[in-house]
């Protein structure tokens, strides 16, 4: 059966379609199938990485990262080590960016500046350099928007990426209704020209996060990111030179665990999109499909029709739109009509054939793993995959791909902009969901578990909050030998006691440039600042403490004959920043943190009623 490329469109029915049809050129197209393996199925008991990923990591770690460690740590004397002793034994590091709409994208961008060696202030603070020693970067939903913007734009420094020219996120133009109703009509008209071609799925995101859109051409009919493919990251110069961590974006599907289907953290499957494949390392799936041909109808990995392989399905806007497709649901929670939800879905990358409220947050992709793992994979018989927002199962930080044992990751730095508390701060929920999944679903179903567990964390969100852990960075698993060390960087109020702007509600879809700058700055200052108990001052040792944590696992990788003890300086850091169940901290040690959002209370120009008037106009 050939994949369905046509999308029924309420939108084109009520918007005039202009004469320029060039965007249609960006639709997926058919080609003769090459003689390759389209699908990689591997044993659930011995999972294997894509060979292209393995060689990327090994080249980055042998040719690029060693020098970056030296640049970051110097000779090591500032933290009590000799960096040269760790050569060939450096830990494998990953950074993860949570979901949370525009809030998460902007928070994540500010954090990236703080860990980027290209930012001189960050280097001086000691935090700038972490990004350059990382082997992996994962993103989900709003974090996937950030990831897409980075990887589709040659991995630029984020200050320029967000507010400069490459590409410039144009957040002052609303995501849903840019420039008010009249301008919005032009915007939708431009978009509608390519909607028939499927190129428009996710195009509202493409306008903001991909190359080619600025304030001057926002409303014209140039391609605005259409035609930019996720698989094209493979050919980008920065990627060929291994200049960036290997990117992974997560997406969920309904799965089955212990007899239940869907809706809980345990019964959803987690998928990942890399530049090479769409894959799931969940034990019941354990397979991946070549991303370049991902729209192709396959059965047991073989094209159903060898003359009609699909290319061009993996539009970047569509990939990041699929990872974030809960967003229309969040926006429409006020009770939108089906037609209105469909407009949102089209714009945000979640096209569905038949719309009902129940599938409001589903993106349908042809199922490339049809016929694979028939006894365990619930969608093995299905020609389509119903893909859900990467955070649907509550794991709002994309930990899952980073816990895959075959990836051998030693340190995970997790940026969390979840909206858990009433004031839109994270409270550890995402970590708790991941612990639950990693300790049950990913372990019980296998004789030989293929995923690492998270280290010990507090038992409840109340504990996270009362211990003040969500107000400052914390290291988890400092002494554990069988889990990665996790560095949690929660979105938190300014340590200085200033009024916060980084906790905007998920529904906010417009930000003035000066607001975005304040958000970047606040996320940045906290990430280079650490904390000093009972003060509102940054910790002058924090940057070096972060270095201590990121390099610590090198000690356990050294040959046993040459042990290196944790240095005195790093031991002091660990006393302050490690979660220690036998010496608990308190939120009282973090005085004067303001929790209430200080941004404009009603800047969101989006409302269901204004959308209704647009739809009926
Ligand atoms: C470092 O990043 C911050 C926050 O994004 C930005 O304000 C500053 O201009 C950057 N500094 C340099 C030297 O790039
Ligand atoms: C962005 O678009 C401009 C103008 O088309 C082009 O010159 C530039 O190379 C593009 N950058 C990337 C990273 O694709
Ligand atoms: C699986 O189901 C059994 C029986 O219903 C139950 O006792 C067990 O707790 C379940 N396991 C998980 C991890 O939910
Ligand atoms: C997932 O499963 C739940 C519970 O069975 C169901 O309500 C929902 O419609 C399913 N979603 C998809 C996309 O299949
Ligand atoms: C296979 O695909 C080709 C090219 O799209 C098409 O012409 C042909 O009819 C297809 N064959 C079958 C059996 O569907
Ligand atoms: C941004 O500028 C507007 C005026 O142009 C001002 O009202 C608003 O307070 C500023 N926002 C921030 C966060 O500085
Ligand atoms: C490491 O610490 C242990 C226990 O304090 C000590 O016995 C040992 O000599 C130290 N090793 C090195 C290499 O300093
Ligand atoms: C780690 O081990 C050291 C030395 O045994 C101990 O002093 C410290 O309290 C432990 N830290 C945590 C977080 O368990
Ligand atoms: C407990 O932690 C505090 C910092 O939060 C530290 O000052 C104190 O020394 C620690 N006590 C022990 C026994 O490690």
UniProtKB/TrEMBL annotation:
GO terms for molecular function: phosphatidylcholine lysophospholipase activity; phospholipase A2 activity. InterPro entries: Acyl_Trfase/lysoPLipase (IPR016035), LysoPLipase_cat_dom (IPR002642). One of its GO terms (cellular component) is cytosol. Residues 32-584 form the PLA2c domain. SMART domains: PLAc. GO terms for biological process: glycerophospholipid catabolic process. It holds the Pfam family PLA2_B. It is an enzyme of class 3 (hydrolase). The keyword Ligase does not apply. This is Lysophospholipase. It comes from Collybiopsis luxurians FD-317 M1. The lineage of its organism: Eukaryota, Fungi, Dikarya, Basidiomycota, Agaricomycotina.
């Amino acid at each position: 059966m050939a994949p369905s490329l046509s999308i029924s469109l309420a939108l084109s029915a009520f918007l005039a379609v202009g004469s320029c049809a060039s965007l249609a050129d960006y639709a997926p197209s058919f080609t003769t199938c090459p003689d390759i393996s389209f699908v990689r199925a591997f044993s659930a008991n011995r999972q294997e990485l894509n060979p292209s990923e393995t060689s990327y990591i090994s080249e980055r770690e042998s040719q690029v990262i060693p020098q970056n460690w030296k640049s970051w740590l110097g000779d090591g004397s500032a933290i009590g080590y000799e960096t040269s002793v760790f050569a060939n034994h450096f830990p494998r590091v990953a950074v993860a960016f949570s979901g949370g709409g525009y809030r998460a994208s902007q928070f994540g961008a500010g954090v990236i500046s703080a860990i980027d060696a290209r930012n001189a202030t960050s280097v001086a603070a000691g935090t700038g350099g972490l990004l350059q020693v990382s082997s992996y970067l994962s993103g989900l939903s709003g974090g996937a928007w950030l990831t897409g913007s980075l990887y589709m734009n040659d991995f630029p420094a984020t200050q320029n990426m967000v507010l400069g020219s490459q590409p410039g996120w144009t957040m002052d133009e609303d995501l849903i209704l840019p420039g008010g109703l009249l301008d919005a009509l032009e915007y939708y008209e431009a978009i509608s020209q390519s909607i028939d071609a499927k190129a428009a799925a996710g195009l509202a995101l493409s306008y903001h996060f991909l190359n080619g859109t600025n304030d001057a051409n926002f409303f014209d009919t140039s391609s605005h990111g259409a035609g930019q493919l996720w698989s094209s990251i493979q050919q980008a110069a920065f990627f060929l030179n291994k200049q960036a961590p290997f990117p992974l974006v997560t997406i969920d599907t309904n799965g089955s665990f212990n007899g239940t289907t869907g809706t809980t953290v345990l019964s959803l499957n987690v998928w990942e999109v890399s530049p090479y494949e769409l894959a799931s390392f969940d034990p019941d799936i354990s397979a991946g499909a070549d991303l370049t041909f991902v729209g192709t109808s396959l059965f047991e990995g073989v094209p159903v029709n060898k003359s009609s392989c699909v290319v061009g399905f993996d539009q970047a806007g569509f990939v990041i739109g699929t990872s974030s497709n809960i967003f229309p649901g969040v926006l429409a929670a006020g009770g939108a009509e089906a037609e209105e939800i469909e407009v949102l879905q089209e714009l945000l990358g979640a096209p569905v054939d038949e719309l009902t409220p129940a599938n409001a947050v589903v993106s349908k992709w042809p199922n490339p793993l049809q016929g694979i793992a028939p006894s365990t994979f619930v969608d093995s018989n299905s020609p389509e995959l119903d893909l859900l927002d990467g955070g649907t199962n509550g794991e709002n930080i994309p930990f899952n791909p980073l816990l895959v044992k075959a990836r051998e990751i030693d340190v995970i730095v997790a940026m969390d902009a979840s909206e858990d508390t009433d004031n839109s701060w994270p409270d550890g929920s995402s970590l708790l969901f991941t612990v639950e999944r990693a300790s049950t679903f990913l372990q019980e179903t296998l004789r030989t578990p293929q995923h690492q567990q998270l280290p010990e964390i507090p038992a409840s969100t109340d504990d996270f909050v009362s211990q003040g852990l969500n107000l400052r960075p914390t290291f988890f698993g400092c002494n554990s030998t069988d889990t990665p060390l996790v560095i949690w960087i929660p979105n938190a109020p300014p340590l200085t006691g200033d009024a916060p702007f980084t906790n905007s509600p998920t529904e906010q879809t417009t930000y003035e440039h000066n607001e975005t700058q304040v958000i970047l700055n606040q996320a940045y200052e906290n990430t280079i600042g650490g904390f000093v108990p009972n003060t509102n001052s940054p910790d002058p040792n924090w940057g070096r403490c972060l270095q201590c944590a990121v390099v610590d696992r090198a000690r356990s990788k050294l040959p046993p004959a040459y042990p290196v003890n944790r240095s005195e300086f790093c031991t002091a850091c660990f006393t302050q920043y490690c979660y220690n169940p036998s010496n608990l901290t308190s939120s009282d040690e973090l005085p004067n943190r303001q929790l209430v959002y200080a941004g404009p209370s009603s800047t969101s120009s989006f409302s269901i009623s204004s959308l209704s008037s647009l739809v009926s106009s």
